[in-house]
């Protein structure tokens, strides 16, 4: 399994394309710049099978409808944010001056619980990691040693919790119980910024001091 990180849009939100030897791929968090996503897919000769969303904040969903329509593929989102795609107040796009309110069509499929999933021949484990938002999830590719965490954990930081539905205590529990329990050499692929590892964040992330739990 291979992956590519594509920083997109004004906020440089990381989209990820995960693909296997058979050229099947999953598109995760297509925030903007659908042409840039399509260019990479065409260049690699990939066959998109689905769009997966770590959560439904506006900077992660801007290209969802255009990509979904272009490839005729379903969109997967956690059920806790079922109404967020079409609601600018929930997805946060109405909170910022100069940003067009985002109204995206409803997801086709909803994650309802943690566990193993296989979509388009690509398997992963879904971890529920709420705190940044109620339906935040992380996609763990165990055999390949990486996890895509959205805005839950960053290199030297954690997700903000001042947006609708955010809870700092819940976020820290998610990180501590779901992420830091993974092997130290697991690559952490965040929604913004550079790639890090579980071991790096366990030792050096100032927000993960045990006294905060």
Question: What is this entry, summarized?
Answer:
With 213 residues, the protein is α/β, with parallel strands linked by helices. It has helices at 34-44, 64-71, 88-91, 168-179, 198-204; strands spanning 2-8, 13-19, 24-28, 47-52, 75-78, 109-111, 115-119, 122-128, 137-141, 146-150, 153-154, 157-158, 187-190, 196-197.
Summary keywords:
alpha/beta; hydrolase activity; metal ion binding; Metallo-beta-lactamase, Chain A; globular; 213 residues; 30% strand; hydrolase; 14 strands; 6-stranded mixed sheet
Characterization of this structure:
It is a single chain. Helices cover 20% and strands 30% of the residues. With 213 residues, it is an alpha/beta fold. It has one domain (2-212): 4-Layer Sandwich (Metallo-beta-lactamase, Chain A), CATH 3.60.15. A hairpin with a 4-residue loop joins strand 2 and strand 3 (24-28). The radius of gyration is 16 Å and the shape is globular. The model has no long low-confidence stretch (mean pLDDT 95). Keywords: Hydrolase, Metal-binding, Zinc. It comes from Domibacillus epiphyticus.
Q: Name the beta content range.
A: 25-35%
Q: What's the CATH H-level superfamily name?
A: Ribonuclease Z/Hydroxyacylglutathione hydrolase-like
Q: Detail the poorly predicted runs.
A: none
Net shape = globular
β-strand number = 14
Query: What percent of residues adopt helix (DSSP H or I)?
Result: 10-25%
Q: How many independent structural domains?
A: 1
Q: Numbering strands along the chain, what is their spatial order in the largest sheet?
A: 1-2-3-4-5-6
Q: CATH class, anyone? A: Alpha Beta
CATH topology: Metallo-beta-lactamase, Chain A
| Main β-sheet description | 6 strands, mixed
Mean of pLDDT: 95
String of helices and strands? EEEHEHEHEEEEEEEHEEH
Number of helices: 5
> How many angstroms separate the termini?
34 Å
- Going by CATH, the architecture would be 4-Layer Sandwich
Pfam families: Lactamase_B
Cofactor: Zn(2+)
Protein name: Metallo-beta-lactamase domain-containing protein
GO molecular function, one term: hydrolase activity
């Amino acid at each position: 399994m291979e992956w590519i990180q594509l920083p997109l849009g004004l906020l440089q939100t990381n989209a990820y394309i995960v693909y296997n030897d058979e050229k099947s791929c999953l598109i995760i968090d297509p925030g903007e710049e659908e042409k840039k996503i399509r260019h990479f897919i065409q260049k690699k000769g990939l066959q998109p099978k689905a769009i997966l969303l770590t959560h439904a904040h506006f900077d992660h969903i801007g290209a969802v409808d255009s990509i979904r329509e272009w490839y005729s593929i379903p969109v997967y989102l956690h059920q806790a944010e079922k109404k967020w795609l079409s609601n600018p107040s929930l997805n946060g796009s109405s909170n910022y001056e100069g940003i067009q309110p985002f109204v995206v069509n409803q997801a086709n499929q909803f994650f309802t619980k943690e566990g193993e999933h296989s979509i388009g021949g690509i398997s992963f484990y879904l971890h529920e990691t709420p705190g940044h938002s109620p339906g935040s999830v992380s996609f763990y590719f165990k055999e390949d040693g990486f996890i895509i965490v959205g805005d839950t954990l960053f290199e030297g930081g954690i997700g903000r919790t001042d947006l609708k539905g955010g809870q700092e205590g819940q976020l820290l529990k998610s990180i501590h119980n779901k992420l830091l329990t993974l092997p130290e050499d697991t690559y952490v692929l965040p929604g913004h910024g550079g790639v890090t590892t579980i071991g790096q964040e366990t030792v050096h992330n100032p927000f993960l001091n045990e006294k905060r739990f």
